[in-house]
Design brief:
Blueprint (H helix, E strand, L loop, with lengths): L1 H10 L14 E4 L5 E8 L10 E8 L5 E8 L5 E7 L6 E7 L2 E7 L6 E7 L2
Parallel strand pairs: 1-5, 2-8
Antiparallel strand pairs: 2-5, 3-4, 3-6, 6-7
Length: 122
């Protein structure tokens, strides 16, 4: 039995580590719909901003009485994603911060359901 297991282990090729393994995309979901917002955050020198914070407050429900605050940090490539956003409805304002640097981005979910933003912090 042991020789059979060893023989099978030799036949299975060893997995080689990927040379260009990309870091996981930092993602958070509101679970309210299908819309998304993808961010690439860079500092003033154009270098990806690791651990920058993307914050958004979503108002939904009757008269926008329900509220949800979402916050996600960027990965080592300066990328983050907010998904599960409600189709239509109110405009969303994203506050992107790192240290004392801050910028703001607006998304109209009616006209731009799957938005991509490249943001520079200065």
């Amino acid at each position: 039995m042991l020789t059979l297991a060893l023989g099978l282990a030799l036949l299975v090729p060893a997995q080689q580590p990927s040379e260009t393994a990309k870091p996981d995309l930092a993602t958070i979901s509101a679970r309210l719909g299908v819309c998304t917002a993808d961010f690439t955050v860079r500092d003033a020198a154009g270098v990806p901003a690791y651990a920058a914070t993307v914050h958004v407050r979503i108002r939904y429900g009757f008269m926008g009485l329900k509220r949800m605050d979402l916050e996600v940090g960027t990965n080592s490539e300066g990328k983050a994603r907010v998904e599960g956003l409600p189709l239509g409805g109110r405009r969303l304002t994203y506050d992107i911060t790192k240290d004392k640097l801050k910028t703001t981005v607006e998304q109209n979910l009616t006209s731009d359901c799957h938005a991509t933003y490249t943001v520079s912090l200065e």
